[in-house]
Amino acid sequence: MMMKWYFGRFLLRQYIYPAIVFILLILLIKWNSKPQKINNNIQHGNWHESGGNVIKSVNTLPKSMKLS
Description:
This is ATP synthase F0 subunit 8. Helix content is 62%, strand content 12%. It is mostly helical. The protein has a two-stranded antiparallel sheet with strand order 1-2. The longest helix has 42 residues, at 2-43.
């Protein structure tokens, strides 16, 4: 009985806690980087990165390519 309890504690300490911390760290980084990207897009209007692809904003497209 004691061995089972100890092994459970070992698993928690060895794998589960680090996994939780790692996931939280990734989420924190994602949440921190979002507002900055939005601000950059507003400030620099013409060029911005979106998901690794560089997209030109609607204002700088030639008239023939505009939707309206």
